[in-house]
């Protein structure tokens, strides 16, 4: 049984003098500059490492270099260099000594796909970039056409790391399979590296896009238009044939008579432990009354969501992962996209979404910033229930704000409050109530300076007396309050 060792060069093939394929005149021009070719690389999915100060898992060991393959590292903020990767050397040494070649081996040519992140938004943003070669070859630069043509013709399996970020799962989630299939990578060819695996021949496409990679840096290194390359991949998405979904069928008459088809993509059905807006159910009721279709994307397939978004004249989102499906939708010319911010970072996400929309210049974009308080129930903005000015938000969407709530809106708000009390921690409930009370004292001015002051409020920490008083209020809400008898002293002056 043969083992890897980082202490001296080790060969596991009949060709001990090389681990990388010689990419000379026998390969297409430009292939070597965008496809790193590796022989006898060992993939270590559990290898802990920091790349540009971000913790992750998964590295590929090159026995010829006696080092990890830098080209396979996931670029987050910059294109990684070896100095940017910090690895636990003791863990690596132990893993290399303990990894027998015969345990798992892939003897045919394989393609490295990067990382699959089990989060809808991060999957879109970070897991698709090394698949650029699946796009339309005719729309690529000549030097990339040859590389992409070669990879497409191989029909090889594509292997991904799946780092344990939100959970320990190693299976391909349904939405991942549907999106990858739409891009031309059928699920049968998608594989997760879940144990140390020896790849006899591994092709590693370069990474043109990342969480916050600077496109100009990528373009300069690889001589391409990285945004156009990613756009070309997303344009290749093919929607499987399916009948018209019920929400569209119900609005067919409205579309036929040229009435604007308006959709509000709601977060109100998400669990209370995920990021939402305080009192978001009011938006559902008011916008439904105004003629919007209130849509909960988590209850529908990817295909149904794309079909709906592609038919809409106006889409209103609360910032979050659902925005990413705009990348593979076929939006109507001059469609209106409105994004309600639930956190400051939402503005950055919206700009990133626009970067990869081919029709962004023909769309009517509006970001609605009515934030009053962030990190209200959690210091993690993606989990927090945050406070916005609902009246200002509705004014920006409808051109008017209701003077009062309808009975249906009041009922929805009452149910929301009861669920909040039943399913959240007292500290979170106290923070919500404090945020609402502090909002009562905020000036009506919408000037930039007053907005900044409001956003500095971190409404999670409460003073002891305020916390005790607010908890007492919620205890009374949990239990029916007995009516005091006029013959008894209440103790209230």
* Cα gyration radius (Å): 27 Å
Number of strands: 16
Strand content: 15-25%
Shape: globular
Report the average pLDDT across residues. Answer: 81
Provide the structure class.
alpha/beta
Distance between the termini: 86 Å
Helix content percent band: 25-40%
Characterise this structure:
- By secondary structure, the protein is an alpha/beta fold.
- The chain folds into two domains: 31-235, no CATH class; 246-442 and 451-478, no CATH class.
- The protein has 17 helices and 16 strands.
- The strands form three sheets. Strands 1, 2, 3, 4, 5, 6, 7 and 8 form an eight-stranded mixed sheet that branches. A five-stranded parallel sheet has the order 11-9-12-13-14, sandwiched between helices.
- Strand 13 (336-340), helix 12 (345-355) and strand 14 (364-368) form a beta-alpha-beta unit.
- Helix 10 (281-289) runs antiparallel to helix 14.
- It is globular and about 70 Å long.
- The termini are far apart.
